[in-house]
Amino acid sequence: MLAVPEMGLQGLYIGSSPERSPVPSPPGSPRTQESCGIAPLTPSQSPKPEARAPQQASFSVVVAIDFGTTSSGYAFSFANDPETIHMMRKWEGGDPGVAHQKTPTCLLLTPEGAFHSFGYTARDSYHDLDPEEARDWLYFEKFKMKIHSATDLTLKTQLEAVNGKKMPALEVFAHALRFFKEHALQELREQCPSLPEKDIVRWVLTVPAIWKQPAKQFMREAAYLAGLVSRENAEQLLIALEPEAASVYCRKLRLHQLMDLSSRAPGGGRLGERRSIDSSFRQAREQLRRSRHSRTFLVESGVGELWAEMQAGDRYMVADCGGGTVDLTVHQLEQPHGTLKELYKASGGPYGAVGVDLAFEQLLCRIFGEEFITTFKRQRPAAWVDLTIAFEARKRTAGPHRAGALNISLPFSFIEFYRKQRGHNVETALRRSSVNFVKWSSQGMLRMSCEAMNELFQPTVSGIIQHIEALLARPEVQGVKLLFLVGGFAESAVLQHAVQTALGARGLRVVVPHDVGLTILKGAVLFGQAPGVVRVRRSPLTYGVGVLNRFVAGRHPPEKLLVRDGRRWCTDVFERFVAAEQSVALGEEVRRSYCPARPGQRRVLINLYCCAAEDARFITDPGVRKCGALSLELEPADGGPDTAGAPPGRREIRAAMQFGDTEIKVTAVDVSTNRSVRAAIDFLSN
């Protein structure tokens, strides 16, 4: 394959034989210049991907950061004791009765944009600011969702603080990651003073599996800016997909660490009878003892008791219900080492716990008016944060069988601000509104019935169940036996009851880990110690490049015909690297060769395209879009400083792309010198 500089197709060669003919670009053809920079050097049939064992970087400790929409935290384990996971338990501040192994994803910056605090400290500091002073400070919360929802994410994307002021998103994320880096390194120094200071940490960042490549690259760029790792040591940072991390952790669990929702007594406490899970395990274990092969499988894989009950080839689903999104993945357990194979590409949507918060805000708008709520948020941002905290505390206590009403405190500034703005009090507003299931209590609180609270959950919970049911209906995932419900939102009794009610009748066993809110964080640590545990993934999209092929009448559209020097070419052909839904093994490579289009060329830039369809033929087809660029930085060849006069077809640059990891990676080598070529894929250049 031959690459051409951005200026056009001049000097392009094509063909599978050593004798190649030049194909200069037609004058005044900007569309062709933009879309066709590559032509096949060999027949268009792609070579079979080659597998290569992933190279492991040296490290002494793995530190995983679970950067969540509503709460975040970190954990670590040492390479010499990888399964002993150390949790951070020293977060200052916090809400009474709530475990502090994570801290709110809240960032406070000074009016000048300098870092002030993160987590509980940021939230409490912002609360203590004078209302007038708070207008100038930059307070960010639940900002992770902005990266998911941004359709044109770039390094210049802006985030809006609570007071309406904007700041580059990259800087906001870097501030947060830098906080975790410094906090984690200080903890490591205290626990193990003998650890060397440099290049001993493998960092792991968690992201939703449904995030596209630009969002993943954005998190990596933020990590570079925060100083977690350098670009030269990029392999010291891994991106972990949240439901995968949960799956890796769940496979290690024992029975007493799990809650089987199908065996809970209706309306009971946290955990009902576990007879079904225990008895079925004993029965399965007896069967496994009769099989020498199965005994070997259990010993070698190191999986937990629940997995001993499953046979190799069994399938299960993980539903990661977080603050911002629900992430679904389906895995198959493989012999002999208990590795995992993804059966269907990750799916899901924006059905996280923040959907309940938005429903509450809409309820307030119905009672007090949308204009007032908007004004109050803008002019009293700290008081609005107080109100959301009060609602969060009550949201956590909601349950399908709760009898008593829920009281939500309204900040005094809210009550006073409403009276000044509207000329009457909040009690009058409640009486006048059409909302009859929220009352005003004598203690100065909103009194909400349990039915009303549960109604706030319904749109989000229904979206989660519909996604799970749609995935279960697909033929690729038939035979799923278990559903692991994980993530912070999975702690909700409302969600647990709804999922079990909807799916339990189908014979699906719904299981929740006891430390459900920490499942992803702990799994990310284990993933960092052994990233090869997920052996096969499914490509979420079809990726490829635009090329020129020989024009075949009757097969290629006439409008794609390009004739130069008597040769007939078809433009805009979409050459596929990997197809959507294609299974790709870890370390598997797709190789392509490129040649500089002119002597002395120092950089080759090739546009990458993607689409959801598997059968796209041209880069101009509906749904096909440019998603990034492959960049190859060339050094002068041995023949001279700029290889002047050398035929451009003589220098071959071989690029190898890996689609089976959590990120798309590329390496390249100059075949003539066997030197590595600096190669990168940029998904944020659009």
Automatic annotation (TrEMBL):
Region (Disordered): 12-53
InterPro entries, alphabetized: ATPase_NBD
Domain of life: Eukaryota
SUPFAM superfamilies tied to this protein: Actin-like ATPase domain (SSF53067)
Protein name: Heat shock protein family A (Hsp70) member 12B
Gene (name only): HSPA12B
